[in-house]
Design a protein that fits this description.
The protein is α+β, with helices and mostly antiparallel strands. It is built from 13 helices and 14 strands.
Length: 408
């Protein structure tokens, strides 16, 4: 509970019986509220208080009165219980989980001796103290990812904290929950900690898509995110405006990518010397550039220039198959494109494709990057029409890319 309040930049005293704090900068009241007393869309909170016990009630009412009289906004730590009926009987010790909902901002609608009503809107921002702490912490969240990877199995928060305390004893990891959310693809709270990010799909090769969570509340465990096992995820608002983590539909291209990522480093040859390492690295480059005769034909057909960028540095020009390689019969020039290495990667990932009318299209995740300028660009075509890319093959590749994006 204390950690949840710290995410608002405040310390709660006597958390055994208090559940509210007044913040001076910014001026607001932070309260802990039961999830089962919210309306389904979390815009209303009504609860009777006749059964409340202990010294916390007068202080809680004092803080609500202050918010009402001075027009202070309410911010929320959501408490979850596995037995709401016991809570309604006055047993507040049934709380199992405390999580700040940083998007909720509320006001007091009604404050009576034995009942109160609050109203909320989803207009909140992450507190400046949290943002400032993240800026100071720098690479701390990478140490969290390192801990999960090193432990090598599904682990609880307490196990991660113990590993961090051993390996990074000088670091303050009181914000471990925030850093876990920051890196976890199926945690809707991550959007509060990464203000610069607008697209939350996990199939865009984002470096912070590192972890996956299983379970709820104190039974939650974290593990390394593996698309082949966990699928891909996105964050989206539901019909009530509440953001949720939702699984993305499976696609042929997405499944192939996930399987390839799993297998990429499973069968490495023994690298017993610098020479072995260089051979392995250059072999990978040669494989990526494409089979010699096929690449030579494409270099000739496209005048030794990338079909999209016009780049003429032949060392980075690669032979890209439009339809996947399935033998010599797919080594036709009209089933290939000569692409700069980075464009080839985007093409194979389904983040960039060519329409049957030879126009470049890009995925939404590339907008705002240097590749956005390529959208709508017309392909540089070979002089010989028989070498032009087959429109049927281009249409099939475009279909796979759009299927992966979930737009078909």
């Amino acid at each position: 509970m204390s950690e949840a309040f710290r995410r608002y930049g405040v310390e709660i005293t006597n958390p055994q019986w208090t559940s509210s704090v007044v913040s001076e900068n910014p001026p607001q009241v932070i309260v802990s509220l039961w999830s089962h007393n919210f309306s389904p869309d979390m815009t209303r909170y009504v609860t009777p208080t006749a059964q409340w016990k202990g010294a916390g009630k007068p202080l809680f009412y004092k803080h609500l009165r202050l918010a009402m009289d001075e027009g202070l906004p309410l911010r929320v730590v959501v408490a979850t219980s596995s037995d709401p009926e016991e809570v309604r009987k006055g047993n507040a010790q049934r709380a199992k989980d405390f999580e700040p909902d940083l998007s909720l901002v509320g006001r007091v609608v009604r404050l009576e001796d034995e009942e109160f009503e609050l109203a909320f809107e989803r207009t909140g921002e992450t507190p400046d103290t949290v943002v400032a702490e993240r800026a100071r912490s720098g690479v701390k969240y990478w140490h969290v990812a390192e801990a999960v990877e090193a432990l090598g199995r599904p682990v609880r928060t307490s196990e991660i904290a113990e590993w961090l305390a051993t390996h990074y004893p000088k670091e303050d990891h009181s914000d471990l929950g925030a850093n876990l959310a920051f890196l976890t693809v199926n945690d809707a709270n991550r959007r509060h900690y990464d203000r610069s990010r607008k697209i939350w799909r996990s199939d865009g090769d984002h470096p912070r898509d590192r972890l996956f969570r299983v379970g709820k509340q104190r039974a939650t465990t974290y593990q390394v995110f593996r698309p082949s096992a966990h699928g891909h995820w996105d964050l989206q608002p539901n019909a009530d405006g509440v953001w949720e983590a939702v699984p993305l539909p499976s696609s042929a291209l997405g499944r192939a990518q996930a399987e390839a990522e799993d297998q990429a480093f499973e069968h490495l040859p023994p690298l017993d010397s610098d020479h072995d390492a260089r051979v392995w690295s250059l072999t990978a480059i040669a494989q990526r550039q494409g089979q010699g005769a096929f690449r030579a034909k494409l270099l000739e057909a496209y005048g030794q220039r990338c079909a999209i960028t016009g780049c003429n540095a032949t060392s980075v020009l690669e032979a890209a198959h439009i339809l996947p390689f399935r033998g010599e019969h797919t080594h036709r020039v009209d089933n290939g494109l000569l692409l700069r290495s980075d464009i080839h990667t985007l093409f194979d990932l389904g983040l960039l494709w060519i329409t049957p009318t030879h126009v470049v299209a890009i995925a939404p995740s590339l907008r705002g990057t240097e590749y956005e300028a390529m959208e709508g660009q017309v392909l540089r075509l070979p002089v010989s029409r028989e070498h032009w890319p087959n429109p049927v093959h281009l249409a099939d590749q475009a279909r796979l890319a759009l299927e992966k994006l979930g737009t078909t």
